[in-house]
Write a structure and sequence with these properties.
Blueprint: E1 8-15, H1 25-40, E2 49-53, H2 63-71, E3 80-83, H3 90-104, E4 109-117, H4 123-134, H5 145-161, H6 165-179, H7 193-198, E5 201-203, E6 206-207, E7 216-225, H8 226-231, H9 239-242, E8 246-255, H10 271-282, E9 291-293, H11 299-308, H12 317-327, H13 345-348, H14 357-368, E10 382-389, E11 394-401
Parallel strand pairs: 2-3, 2-4, 9-10
Antiparallel strand pairs: 1-7, 1-8, 4-7, 5-6, 8-11, 10-11
Helix pairs in contact: 6-11, 6-12, 10-11, 11-12
Length: 405
């Protein structure tokens, strides 16, 4: 690395198992943090910053302070901790915040942590809390509010851009095909298009198999200043840290309304603006990206992201999805055919509320470090990760790259 050049780098990541675990969110967060520290070759004393994403099942006032106190990071002078709540965008917002902290706020290394136990909640209580977060005061969104909000938007996109009902359902099929290649994914068998369309109706143009797969789980990453990383012993580092980590090349964020307005139009969507910022800051174009981690809480989130992040022209994401569906019909398709959400996304990997964008980051780390095994993209050097909060209420996009020393 040229003398004086300092970059923010993801140097370790860790996650718990997924499923109905029967453990509190704070315990899952702590385990994920410990795993990420071990992967980076660091100890708790080596980090001087922590960013936490709050949980739905077991929320705490000042979540980051609660977690930092629980694990023993606080009290300690010089340590900064921050709670960030941008919904499902939180892990990517946290990654960008951690990068700023190590580059501009004199932190050496910052942990970003998220965890939740929504699968262990009763369904009635889960829906009550989820509805409370995105309820329209006018009552235009019936319960469950979030699926109905996304359902309204799905039908608007279908009418405006000619998206078909089958193309929407193909997203879930695609994610299930990807998930079968990841040993930790909850979905072990690929869905058929008929299974998706015929599963239980949840909201307009939305079936059960088109909803994020509810789960418990925790995940964490460590972001470090490259100068600090050089000062640490190489002993004990995981494969990502040994390779110098991944450079945070650029990022962007944008916001939309908490729930869909009475008249839906393009002004409510935020991913396009966030992606433009990320590309501009990194001075890259969509064709420079080798792997994409796109948020897919519902198929329409993925479909909007496909165009927003430059994989196809605006209004043509349905055709793009159908093309990917056709090209992955044979289950021995090459990972390079569909270099998107190779872990299965929220629809099939698992979705512990606001945690899943962290899995996008973790899969990006696997792809760019060459440790994605049977789902490895050839010669992957750069990745884009996207998180979406609320009902298109906040978007965070980050671009990561292998370091050039």
């Amino acid at each position: 690395m040229p003398r004086g050049v300092r970059t923010a780098r993801v140097v370790g990541c860790g996650m718990t198992s997924l499923g109905k675990l029967g453990r509190p969110a704070s315990e899952l967060m702590q385990e994920a943090l410990e795993r990420a520290l071990a992967a980076s070759g660091m100890k708790l004393r080596d980090i001087d910053g922590l960013v936490a994403v709050p949980s739905l099942s077991d929320p705490h006032f000042m979540e980051a302070h609660y977690l930092a106190t629980r694990v023993g990071l606080l009290p300690s002078r010089g340590v900064k901790v921050k709670t960030i709540d941008t919904g499902g965008a939180g892990p990517v917002s946290g990654l960008l915040l951690a990068a700023r902290m190590v580059l501009h706020e004199r932190c050496n290394a910052v942990a970003v942590v998220a965890g939740d136990a929504v699968a262990s909640m009763g369904t009635e209580e889960f829906l009550r809390r989820a509805d409370r977060g995105c309820r329209d005061p006018s009552g235009s969104l019936p319960s469950p509010c979030i699926p109905n909000g996304y359902g309204r938007i799905t039908e608007w996109v279908m009418k405006k851009y000619g998206l078909t009902r089958e193309q929407v359902a193909m997203v879930s099929v695609l994610m299930s095909r990807q998930a079968t290649r990841h040993p930790l994914a909850l979905t072990r068998k690929a869905h058929t298009l008929e299974e998706v369309l015929n599963s239980k109706a949840i909201a307009p143009s939305t079936t059960l198999l088109e909803c994020a797969r509810r789960s418990d789980g925790g995940a964490a990453i460590i972001v470090a200043n490259s100068g600090f990383l050089e000062s640490l012993p190489s002993m004990g580092r995981g494969p990502l840290a040994k390779q110098g980590g991944l450079v945070v090349l650029g990022g962007g964020e944008a916001s939309g309304p908490l729930y869909p307005p009475p008249v839906i139009d393009e002004t409510m969507f935020s991913c396009e603006e966030a992606a433009k910022q990320a590309y501009a800051e990194s001075q890259l174009l969509p064709e420079d990206i080798d792997w994409f981690g796109l948020y897919d809480c519902y198929p329409i989130s993925f479909i909007r992201a496909v165009a927003a992040c430059g994989l196809c022209p605006k209004g043509q994401a349905g055709r793009w999805v159908e093309d990917m569906y056709e090209r992955t019909q044979s289950l021995d398709y090459s990972p390079d055919v569909f270099p998107v959400n190779t872990h299965g996304g929220l629809l099939s990997f698992g979705a512990p509320w606001e945690v899943p964008a962290m899995y996008n980051i973790i899969e990006a780390c696997a792809q760019l470090s060459g440790s994605a095994d049977g789902r490895q993209i050839e010669n992957a050097r750069r990745a884009l990760v996207y998180g979406n909060g609320g009902i298109f209420s906040h978007s965070a996009v980050a671009i990561l790259g292998k370091p050039v020393e």
